[in-house]
From TrEMBL:
Domain of life from the UniProt record: Eukaryota
GO CC terms of this entry: endosome; HOPS complex; lysosomal membrane
InterPro entries: VPS16, Vps16_N
GO MF, one example: actin binding
Domain Vps16 N-terminal: 5-416
Pfam families xrefs: Vps16_N
Protein name per its UniProtKB record: Vps16 N-terminal domain-containing protein
Organism for this UniProt entry: Leptotrombidium deliense
Source organism phylogeny: Eukaryota, Metazoa, Ecdysozoa, Arthropoda, Chelicerata
Any GO BP annotation: endosomal transport
């Protein structure tokens, strides 16, 4: 059991985070790939990685003509193509590569570099030019928020139906000197959280509100704003190194805590790791801060690129692709050393049974007396889903199967469904397919979306086999 928890790191008393390797990156053997000299754009949900080799990364405008290389999450080259006058590069929810140019033109490519379409953000932007833009996802579609050099803020909520909406100006506020983030939860109106000097504004398409927020530490400006995947949790970093963590609620920012980072320089990355902690990278340190001011740090070897996922953070370096996540509660209950949770007892009972010792009877009697045998089976099934290691999955599913003998009336559907899901996940995690999805990411996406990802990558045979295996109509 100690080996299973060897990469767990406590954050506070009950919460743990773990960092594990998804794969070794094959591009380390390819000449010219060095993240310190590249602009990196990685698609969410364990998607592809686009690189632009560029020694002048800090420039607002890329070179007139740039070569884009698209890789799988395993670092295998898929395509290379050139695009002119890029201002920003990013991925849509459907894993289309969006190339945004300074005149507001957005060219859309698939992962093989095949051109799909071009649309214009707005005619006015052709003259005023794009100063800064951000992509955001909501309701399973992608939108674009843009600030122009003419101090205009506009939003396209859905790139499939690009209708720009200009947001109101704020008297005395220069958007080009602001720090901002998009707030776009499912089923909600798209809003923009804007910081100018020490003030915070929540921008809507027809109005804006100055937000009340409580911060004790003195500061002169905000350097970073980040929202969690569900757009409910907010973190704000000030120029004095204070990390403010809280919740965006109506017209107010409610504080959880303030944390002194002791860093007066802006981090390379600042984002949420799940819904309960914030992750920031300063040079060779990855800092995790919880809502109760608990913290832990990991040493990293720069350069790295971080990608926010629904259940954690992908860490991409020159050599390896890793994942950092909060250990799910059910996994802590079952695998934590010394745990007496139902699933932990069933796991121990299974081990003792295979050793042919009487302790197996003692563990099962404890579960029977507590009337928790069925609960133990469910816990082992759920824990298997959250484990990336196939051997650990098998160990937990064997325990669940063993426990099912003591609950003959239990519906086997949960067990069968998890076995099927893990078989699919392990298949697409193979380097030949190259989609290192987690169970929670697949839950959010759905099997249908995974099949679409396979079709997008031209893995037609695998997509058909999965559809047949899960009895999904092939059309």
């Amino acid at each position: 059991m100690s080996l299973l928890t060897g990469n767990w790191h406590p954050l506070g008393n009950e919460c743990f985070y773990r960092r594990f390797e998804l794969c070794s990156l094959r591009w380390k053997d390819e000449p010219g790939v060095n993240l310190s000299k590249c602009f990196v754009a990685a698609a969410p949900f364990s998607g592809c990685i686009a690189l632009i080799r560029n020694d002048r990364i800090n420039n607002k405008e890329f070179d007139v003509k740039q070569e884009i290389s698209v890789f799988t999450p395993f670092g295998c080259l898929i395509s290379t193509f050139k695009v002119e006058r890029l201002t920003y590069l990013g991925w849509s929810f459907d894993e289309e590569l969006l190339c945004i140019q300074e005149d507001g033109s957005v060219s859309v490519f698939d992962i093989f570099g095949l051109y799909k379409q071009t649309f214009t953000i707005d005619k006015e932007v052709r003259d005023t030019k794009v100063y800064e833009c951000k992509l955001f996802n909501h309701d399973r579609v992608t939108g674009i928020a843009v600030i122009t050099f003419a101090n205009k803020l506009l939003v396209i909520n859905n790139i499939k139906d690009p209708k720009p909406r200009y947001y109101p100006l704020v008297l005395g506020v220069d958007f080009t000197k602001c720090v901002w983030a998009v707030v776009a939860g499912d089923g909600q109106q798209t809003q923009i959280l804007v910081s100018y000097e020490t003030k915070m504004y929540l921008m809507k398409s027809d109005s804006y509100t100055e937000l009340m927020w409580n911060i004790q530490s003195p500061f002169q400006s905000v350097t970073n704003i980040a929202l969690s995947f569900n757009y409910k949790n907010v973190t704000i970093l000030t120029n004095t190194g204070v990390l403010w963590i809280g919740i965006l609620y109506a017209n107010e920012l409610k504080k959880n805590c303030e944390f002194e980072t002791d860093g007066k320089i802006s981090p390379n990355f600042l984002m949420w790791c799940g819904e309960d902690a914030v992750a920031g990278v300063w040079r060779d340190i990855l800092l995790i801060v919880g809502k109760d001011k608990d913290w832990l740090k990991f040493d990293i070897e720069p350069p790295v690129h971080l990608v926010e996922e629904i259940d954690g953070i992908r860490i991409i370096s020159n050599d390896v692709h890793e994942f950092l996540q909060q250990v799910p509660n059910v996994v802590v209950d079952v695998l934590r050393i010394g745990s007496v949770a139902a699933g932990a007892l069933l796991l121990e009972a299974t081990k003792e049974y295979h050793k042919r010792t009487h302790k197996a009877d003692e563990y099962m009697k404890m579960l029977t007396d507590r009337q928790e045998t069925e609960s133990a089976v469910v816990q082992c099934i759920k824990t298997a889903g959250h484990e990336y290691s196939i051997s650990t999955q098998k160990m937990l599913l064997r325990a669940a199967s063993f426990g099912k003998f003591f609950v003959p009336e239990m519906d086997p559907k949960t067990f069968v469904t998890m076995c099927q899901t893990l078989r699919v996940l392990n298949a697409v995690r193979n380097q030949n397919i190259g989609i290192p999805l987690t169970y929670k990411q697949l839950e959010y996406l759905s099997i249908d979306s995974l099949i679409q990802k396979l079709v997008l990558r031209r893995h037609y045979c695998v997509a058909i086999r999965i559809a047949k295996y899960l009895k999904i109509p092939e059309e």
